[in-house]
Amino acid sequence: MPVTPRSRRPLRPAAALAALALGATALTGCGASAGGDAEEITLYSADGLKSEDGAGFYDKVFKDFERGTGIKVKYVEGGSGELVQRLARERSRTKADVVVTLPPFIQQADGKKLLDTYRPKGAEKVADGDKDPGGKWTSIADNYFCFVYNTDKLKDAPPRTWKDLLDPRFKGRLQYSTPGVAGDGTAVLIKAMHDLGGKEPAMAYLKELQRNNVGPSRSTGQLAPKVDKGELLVANGDVQMNFANMRSMPHQGIFFPAGDDGKPTTFALPYAAGLVKGAPHAANARKFLDFLLTEGVQRDVSAVGGGFAARTDVKAGDPSARALAGLLRGVEVFRPDWADIDENLGSYVAAWKAATGS
Q1: Residue 236's closest CA among 178, 280, 184?
Q2: Per-residue confidence at 204, pLDDT binned at 50, 70, 90?
Q3: What are the helix (H) ranges across the chain?
Q4: Which residue has the higher pLDDT, 248 or 162?
Q5: How many other β-carbons are positioned within 10 Å of the β-carbon of residue 322?
Q6: From CA 19, how far away is CA 195, in angstroms rounded?
Q7: What are phi and psi of 175, to 5 degrees?
Q8: How many CB atoms lie within 10 A of CB 313?
Q9: Among residues of the chain, what percentage have pLDDT more than 70?
Q10: Distance between CA atoms of 246 and 55, rounded to whole angstroms?
């Protein structure tokens, strides 16, 4: 059954001070780096962790990091695939220092040799499946794929299954972000292939769904406000992003479309961070990656960001953490074959384009 989680609570001042103290302790002596390195870094990141109202996970992280180190974070946001493409274009004159994307695009960045080796302090506490064994990237926040629906307009008959989304009532009122460009859009393909029995059944379904689909969207983050306002009734998303923005967009219900067996499923879509090869402020970038895995910041992943800590030793007990755990209760979590997806993503996206005429 679809679940509408509670709005997350803002971090209490005392907790904020405690988290800052933890970060400051971890960063003692970390000012501007030697060799005249400017006191800044540039972060390329998938959307979802920064809030328009200034109360998001990144908003707090950037302020605390600058306060503790003097290093300012310049933020550039985009779709996961779009960011990797940009890094590739800028290879000869790299502008980014750190990149944060969803899989399979962090693997794609590694495959294109866009990442440098760095194992942040605390990475040993991250599960082996959530980091690159070669040290090219590490998850900083765990997350899960989902869909959202407008709880006000669909309160009497909320969608539960893939089949429900074919209903004519969703014509022109349903949208998902573009596979191959957005990480969550690519996740639509991955979950459909898992739930519906493989590539061919999934493409046949998405061809049928296209009659309801509004059209392409380069960013998943653009869809949640439209669902909240009722311009859309259903859109794809991810648990962290949609849960975190419910404070300002309360008319969203999170659900995990089920296949013919009626069982809801999802899979992990962690935010993974890597040091960009040739980063102009590499020393500062390493400090930032270390900071993201400090215990205080990892507790803020749920308390402020609405996500799940990447460090397995951080057992958050805040109200948001408990609500997030409740969201996944009864939902089957499967693990995609990321090696296959990384190798065959181009053919999967091409099949999607052919099926949908996109």
Answers
A1: 184
A2: very high
A3: 13-26, 57-69, 80-89, 105-111, 183-196, 199-209, 223-229, 239-244, 282-292, 295-303, 319-327, 338-356
A4: 162
A5: 12
A6: 40
A7: -155, 145
A8: 11
A9: 90
A10: 12
Residue 21 has pLDDT above 90, yes or no: no
Mean pLDDT of 128-136: 95
Neighbours of 261 (CB within 10 A): 10
In degrees and rounded to multiples of 5, residue 222 shows phi and psi of: -75, -15
In whole angstroms, what is the distance from residue 49 CA to residue 51 CA?
7
d(CA 326, CA 317): 13
Backbone angles phi, psi at 334, to 5 degrees: -105, 160
Rounded Cα distance, 303 and 293, in Å: 15
Q: Is the peptide bond before 319 cis (omega within 30 degrees of 0)?
A: no
Angstrom distance (rounded) from CA 164 to CA 144 = 21
Q: Where are the alpha helices (DSSP H) in 166-293?
A: 183-196, 199-209, 223-229, 239-244, 282-292
Torsion, Cα of 280, 281, 282, 283 (10° steps): 150
Distance of CA 123 to the CA centre of its chain: 19
- Report the alpha-carbon angle 93-30-286, nearest 5: 40
- The pLDDT tens digits of the residues spanning 35-76 come to 345 799 999 999 989 988 888 999 999 999 999 999 999 999
Going by pLDDT thresholds of 50, 70 and 90, the confidence category of residue 33 is very low
pLDDT value for 316: 86
| pLDDT tens per residue, range 136-170 | 999 999 999 999 999 999 999 999 999 999 999 99
Tokens of 212: 């309801």
User: Which pair of tokens denotes residue 8?
Assistant: 């997350």
321 by Cβ neighbours in 10 Å (0-12 / 13-18 / 19+) ranks as: buried
The pLDDT score that the predictor gives to residue 67 is: 97
**Using the 8-state DSSP alphabet, how is residue 129 labeled?**
G
The token pair at 171 is 């014509």
Under the banding of pLDDT at 50, 70 and 90, the label for residue 219 is: confident
